[in-house]
Amino acid sequence: MKVLAKLKPEQGIWMSEADKPEVGYNDILIKIKKTAICGTDVHIYNWDEWSQNTVPVGMTVGHEYVGVVAAIGEGVRGFEIGDRVSGEGHITCGHCRNCRAGRRHLCRNTMGVGVNRPGAFAEFLSIPADNAFKLPDEVTDDMAAIFDPFGNAVHTALSFDLVGEDVLITGAGPIGMMAAAVAKHAGARHIVITDINDYRLKLAKEMGATRTVNSKQENLNDIMNELGMSEGFDVGLEMSGVAVAFNDMLKAMNHGGKVALLGIPPGDMAIDWNQVIFKGLVIKGIYGREMFETWYKMAALIQSGLDLTPMITHSLPIDEFQQGFDIMRSGKSGKVILDWEA
Ligand code: NAD
Ligand code: ZN
Question: Is the ipTM of this structure higher than 0.90?
Answer without folding.
Answer: yes
